[in-house]
Write a structure and sequence with these properties.
elongated, about 110 residues, about 70% helix
Length: about 110
């Protein structure tokens, strides 16, 4: 979708033969990826927010239902990100997903807003 410079394939093939292949080697497995995601979710306010949720709901049972519902929504979002990561195999994360699906303007606005 963007304007990219062309690459001389002969030079790339020569580099691959000399270096044994060009590319990034995966060093992050499933367990490491899950621990990063869980650590980010836990570290993003779980120790601050329970008091506010309990204060606004007025009931322990209702606050637990809100936490469970929020966890389910987070899990669905994580599954969506996993599916996008499998379908769009380019570096860049959410910027690349938005760039490929909605175009360069919306991708730029997302990147700029972040």
């Amino acid at each position: 979708k963007g304007n990219y410079a062309t690459v001389d394939n002969a030079k790339v093939e020569q580099m691959e033969e000399e270096e044994g292949g060009v590319g990034l080697k995966p060093t992050l497995g499933l367990v490491q990826g899950c621990t990063i995601i869980v650590g980010s979710i836990i570290g993003s306010g779980i120790f601050i927010a329970p008091g506010g949720v309990l204060k606004e709901t007025g009931s322990v049972n209702m606050s637990l239902m809100i936490w469970i519902t929020s966890g389910l929504f987070s899990m669905v979002g994580a599954y969506c990100y996993a599916e996008l990561g499998l379908l769009i195999r380019k570096p860049g994360g959410d910027y690349t997903y938005i760039l490929d699906s909605l175009g360069p303007f919306v991708g730029f606005i997302r990147l700029w807003a972040e």
